[in-house]
Design goal:
Number of helices of chain B: 16
Number of domains of chain A: 3
Number of strands of chain B: 26
Largest interface: A-B, 84 and 78 residues
Bound molecules: adenosine-5'-diphosphate, magnesium ion
Low-confidence stretches of chain A: 464-468
Largest sheet of chain A: 8 strands, mixed
CATH superfamily of the largest domain in chain B: P-loop containing nucleotide triphosphate hydrolases
Helix content of chain A: 25-40%
Radius of gyration of chain A: 25 Å
CATH class of the largest domain in chain B: Alpha Beta
Distance between the termini of chain B: 90 Å
Number of helices of chain A: 15
Oligomer: heterodimer
Largest sheet of chain B: 10 strands, mixed
Number of domains of chain B: 4
Shape of chain B: globular
Number of strands of chain A: 21
CATH topology of the largest domain in chain A: Rossmann fold
Low-confidence stretches of chain B: none
Structural class of chain A: alpha/beta
Radius of gyration of chain B: 27 Å
CATH topology of the largest domain in chain B: Rossmann fold
Helix content of chain B: 25-40%
Shape of chain A: elongated
Mean pLDDT of chain A: 92
CATH architecture of the largest domain in chain B: 3-Layer(aba) Sandwich
Strand content of chain A: 15-25%
């Protein structure tokens, strides 16, 4: 980013973690950008975190390592962090975590500049997302539907195949959007090189690279930069969706790294922590990212957001997944047990949820029986899990005949409904029919959440019932 | 009111700023900051310094900027033009802002809460010369097809009406009455008044809540009822049904006015209700629900200080409609986000935290809020009520955290949402063992009066079965159902009928989303009668439970909730008849 003339100060009164303290300042605004020039002439970017009459606290995105207290210069830029947005200049390109080109191309110069913090969307201007997206994955399409404009994160654990799953979603949903303009905005925060490369290759293989823009802050990149990366990505996404009318899928990975960067800054500032050392405003901060998804009445496009996070210690009550779940419109939860059983995608549907499901499905959208069937499958699977626990105590032999049906259901459900190939793309009807087939393992009078007419119409035609 | 005073910013830390030369500023006074005219409120005074929470984004604000005291505390504008509208946490009209500045909320675009140009048809109800007292109704305005807006003498004012405007159209800034107060001074009355949000509006006296706030949700109305003027909390982890329950209540409760506060929650949820409410019809009046609903939307991406204010703005509006003699139900989703806003502000002020970073005054603020609920005799002598239903979002679904615990101290009804029920998609996921209601005795009378419903009996029978079942469940978990003796199997299966065929109720089922009182009573009567006959059959005739569970009427019982709306109770009476016949048959056959 080119240096601009601004107010320049020599010397830092204090350096603490990622923060520097600059004294004797005047006419500096809260939240404005700063450039820190090291004694070697290297320029690092920062932002004013708090400010008083003559003291500014600045977070330095690229870290404070090697900064000299007396020799460093700080230049205040008189504006917040901004990014130039223009579809032609970003699509098909790769940038670093602060939006600087990594692909040898020029930085964006043509578009308008936007404050990367964005603005809150007036709730009155929002259009309620209702358009079903077929991902081809039964656990999602059948039970936790994704709709255009939804924010639906993946709660994962280290070593679980969240990258494969999100790449499969990207591959398979894209096909439906042939007619319309679409884009993928990919933001990596502290992601391993390997994983970023995996995504890139996958986009390339599926031929969508020209519709993709990647912002990469990798595992060995400065951690505080991660506070900026998703915001640049979303600023670009908003431009594509709300000014260029594109359907944009934003992938943010990994939000856990983002939150840790936020904690680092808060701790250095000496703020009062709430849970596990995370600042009390973690909820609001995450909301300022996640709420930048959706549709608005003045544009045809949409922003669908899939944030990936790893649950520390696979703990869903950890503040990061917990607060995320409180903000997003559901969550897809990956499960180590299923993974170890060799089931891909290892989606545990019980804690998973899509809050926008009920309005995105049904007659005219998917099929009339979708809601009830999903509810029925949930009830059966939840009961099956209870029976499995019982079986592990009293042994399978002592189970009632009905309970044994539950065990069979659980096996078939995990082995056939949940499990599918990474390139297997099922239609919603295939998914629903499979759901019925599994449900009909039980006598119809046990299926109390579906209507008799629905059993008549969809349940009776399947193989199992014919055998009975 | 003193002249505007000016202070100077010397510190900025997110939404909290400190100013010096704050001479003559008072606590909770509204201020206007800088050229952009950002709004703020004084939340601390010490010496010549003041701390201010700013209701808008402070990016770019500089030390040295001037801050002007407004001589007024943060207030709401109360008058026609509130119902059916959407406001942010400090009552800025969001639809107007959308028209004026597009889909994104820009700062400094205040806009007045109430429309100044619209003329309302005013009908006087008093004559000049009459003595009037605070809260007395002096005229009416039809605010929506559903709501008659009573124009009242503002609290604190009384005296003799010198003049009252004749019937006709008036804007809210026009004078509609002149009053000579007790000091002999002349006061103007307009169609609207201002009231500070943090102060409870006065009433004559409190009365005990005794009439149920009927919700059409069986688990609530039957097991854990709320009374008009009562308080309730819905705590639950994410995805357990807090918001849907609040939406269901705003749709179906038998209140005259609904105030729905989206406090630090999702924008799309507001978009959802704004899409639904103009289309959905109130089962009692047949009018669109939007005509009785007021929305306060301060979503999670909107400024945090305005989120803190949102519940006060909401409850002040609720109290104002209560003053008119209406029953008002207020939903706040979620009070935890409000508490977090409080914590964020307190943290930036570097106050000493108490538990989990929350300020020590969290409990007293919660108490003040819930105490503004209540059934009252209004200044005008009418009965009105404000019922408050607050969602609570405990971190990690752990109910021992401060907001849940303190809330519990101040509410009388507690609907505990259960993660496990929700993950089995059993809704409403209200745990019937952990939940409670303090209004059971008082609403029992109402049910008795209303067509002589045996609500109390049915309720205690059903609860007894569920409690016994909970004990059995622990055994079944260890040894399986088959090992239970016959009478316990009856309880086990009977409880399942209560849980699945009565308590479970989908918000998304077009028939079952609202269950009228008569339907509720008959459904439970049927199920309990079934259990009774089952008991008898097993005990006296040694017929195994699984044979009984094959009677055909069961299928009809499973379907009844989503087959019959309940306007007509005959189908339910038929089921009851069939049930007796089938049991008699069974006995004949097996004998
Ligand atoms: N009464 C209900 N009937 C049917 N589904 C419900 C009901 N309550 C909750 N749900 C389901 O649970 C999901 C989460 O509910 P919500 O109220 O948004 O949870 P919370 O506000 O507690 O996070 C909803 O999207 C819906 O699918
Ligand atoms: Mg909610």
């Amino acid at each position: 980013m080119p240096a601009r003339t601004g107010l320049e100060y020599l010397g830092l009164v204090r350096v603490q973690g990622p923060l520097i303290f600059v004294k004797g300042i005047a006419n500096i605004g809260f939240g404005e950008m700063a450039e820190v020039v090291t004694s070697e002439g290297e320029v690092r970017l920062g932002r004013v975190l708090s400010i008083s009459d003559d003291l500014a606290v600045v977070e330095v995105f690229e870290g404070t390592a090697g900064l000299s207290g007396s020799e460093s210069k700080v230049r205040f830029l008189g504006r917040p962090f901004e990014y130039r947005v223009s579809a032609e200049e970003v699509l098909g390109r790769i940038f670093d975590g602060l939006g600087r080109p990594l692909d040898g191309g020029p930085p964006p110069i043509a578009g308008q500049t936007r404050d990367i913090n964005g603005l809150p969307i007036n709730p009155v201007a929002r259009v309620y997302p209702q358009d079903f997206i077929q991902t081809g994955i039964s656990a999602i399409d059948g039970l936790n539907v994704l709709v255009r404009g939804q924010k639906l994160p993946i709660f994962s654990g280290s070593g679980l195949p969240h990258a494969q799953l999100s790449a499969q979603i990207v591959r398979q949903t894209r096909l439906l959007e042939k007619e319309e303009r679409f884009a993928i905005v990919f933001a990596a925060m502290g992601t391993k090189h390997e994983e970023a490369q995996f995504f890139r290759n996958d986009f390339e293989e599926s031929g969508s690279l020209k519709n993709v823009v990647m912002f990469l802050n990798l595992a060995d990149d400065p951690s505080i930069e991660r506070l900026i990366t998703p915001r640049i990505a979303l600023t670009v996404a908003e431009h594509l969706a709300f000014e260029e009318d594109m359907h944009v899928l934003v992938i943010l990975t990994d939000m856990t790294n983002y939150c840790e960067a936020l904690r680092e800054v808060a701790t250095s500032k000496g703020e009062v922590p709430s849970r596990k050392g995370y600042p009390g405003y973690l909820y609001s901060d995450l909301a300022s990212i996640y709420e930048r998804a959706g549709r608005i009445a003045t544009a045809k496009g949409s922003i669908t957001q899939i944030a990936i996070l790893t649950m520390p210690d696979d703990d869903i009550t950890h503040p990061i997944p917990d607060l995320t779940g409180y903000i997003t419109e559901g969550q897809i939860v990956l499960d180590r047990g299923l993974f170890q059983k060799g089931i891909y995608p290892p989606i545990n549907v019980l804690p998973s949820l899509s809050r926008l499901m009920s309005d995105g499905i049904g007659e005219g959208r998917t099929r009339e029986d979708h809601q009830n069937l999903a509810s029925q499958v949930y009830a059966l699977y939840a009961q099956a899990k209870r029976v499995e626990r019982l079986a592990s105590i009293i042994g399978e032999e002592d189970l009632t005949g009905r309970d044994r049906l539950f065990l069979r259901f659980s096996n078939e459900f995990e082995g056939r409904f949940i499990k599918q190939g990474p390139y297997e793309n099922r239609t919603i009807f295939e998914t629903l029919d499979l759901g019925w087939e599994l449900g009909m393992i039980f006598p119809s009078r046990d299926l109390t959440r579906v209507k008799p007419e629905e059993i008549q119409k969809y349940g009776k035609t399947t193989l199992f019932s014919q055998q009975k | 009111m003193s002249k505007t005073r000016k202070a100077i910013i010397n510190e900025i830390n997110g939404p909290v700023i400190k100013v010096r030369q704050a001479y003559g500023f008072s606590m909770n006074e509204m201020v206007v900051i800088g050229e952009e005219k950002l709004l703020g409120e004084v939340i601390e005074l010490y010496g010549d310094q003041a701390t201010i929470q700013v209701y808008e984004d402070t990016t770019g604000l500089k030390p040295g900027t001037s801050v002007h005291g407004q001589g007024l505390p943060l207030f709401t504008e109360l008058g026609p033009g509130i119902v059916g509208h959407v406001f942010d946490g400090i009552q800025r009209p969001l639809s107007v802002m959308y028209q004026d500045s597009g889909p994104f909320i820009r700062r400094g675009k205040a806009g007045e809460a109430l429309n100044r140009d619209k003329a309302w048809a005013f009908k006087p109800k008093t004559g000049s010369g009459e003595r009037v007292s605070p809260g007395q109704v002096i005229g009416d305005v039809e605010e929506t097809d559903r709501v008659v807006h009573r124009i009242m003498v503002p609290p604190n004012l009384s005296g003799r009406l010198l003049e009252i405007a004749p019937e006709g159209p008036y804007t809210i800034e026009e004078k509609i009455a002149l009053l000579e107060d007790e000091k002999g001074e002349t006061q103007e009355i307009k169609l609207y008044q201002k009231w500070p949000v943090r102060r409870i509006r006065p009433y004559q006296k409190r009365i005990l809540p005794s009439e149920p706030l009927f919700t059409g949700q069986r688990v609530i109305d039957f097991f854990f009822p709320l009374a008009k003027g009562g308080t309730a909390a819905i705590p639950g982890g994410f995805g357990t049904g807090k918001t849907i329950t609040q939406h269901q209540l705003s749709k179906w409760v038998d209140a005259d006015i609904i105030v729905y506060i989206g406090c630090g929650e999702r924008g799309n949820e507001m978009a959802g209700v704004l899409m639904d409410f103009p289309k959905l019809l109130d089962p009692r009046t047949g009018r669109p629900l939007i005509e009785r609903t007021i929305f306060i939307a301060n979503t999670s991406d909107m400024p945090v200080a305005a989120r803190e204010a949102s519940i006060y703005t909401g409850i002040t509006i609720a109290e104002y409609y209560r003053d008119m003699g209406y029953h008002v139900a207020l939903m706040a989703d979620s009070t935890s986000r409000w508490a977090e806003a409080l914590r964020e502000i307190a943290g930036r002020m570097e106050e000493m935290p108490a538990e989990e970073g929350f300020p020590a005054y969290l409990a007293s603020r919660l108490a003040e809020f819930y105490e503004r609920a209540g059934a009252v005799i209004t200044g005008g002598g009418e009965t009105g009520s404000v019922s408050v239903i607050g969602a609570v979002s405990p971190p990690g679904s752990d109910f021992s955290e401060p907001v849940t615990q303190h809330t519990k101290r101040y509410v009388s009804t507690f609907w505990a949402l259960d993660k496990e029920l929700a993950s089995a998609r059993y809704f409403p996921a209200i745990n019937y063992l952990d939940s409670y209601s303090g209004y059971v005795e008082s609403v029992a009378l109402w049910w008795k009066k209303k067509a002589d419903f045996d609500w109390t009996d049915l309720r205690s029978q059903a609860l007894a079965i569920l409690k016994e079942d909970a004990k059995l469940m622990n055994i079944v978990k260890l040894i399986g159902e088959d090992a239970l003796p016959g009478d316990q199997k009856v309880i086990f299966h009977g409880a399942r009928l209560i849980k699945e065929d009565f308590l479970q109720q989908s918000a998304f089922d077009s028939v079952d989303t609202y269950s009228p009182a008569g339907k509720q009573v008959l459904m439970l009567r049927i199920i309990l009668r079934f259990i009774e006959r089952m008991k008898e059959t097993v005990a006296a005739h040694r017929i195994p439970v699984y044979r009984i569970m094959e009677v055909p009427v069961l299928e009809e019982m499973e379907r009844m909730k989503y087959t019959y709306k309940g306007d007509d109770l005959k189908p339910f009476k038929d089921i009851l008849k069939r049930l007796e016949e089938e049991f008699d048959d069974l006995l004949k056959r097996e004998a």
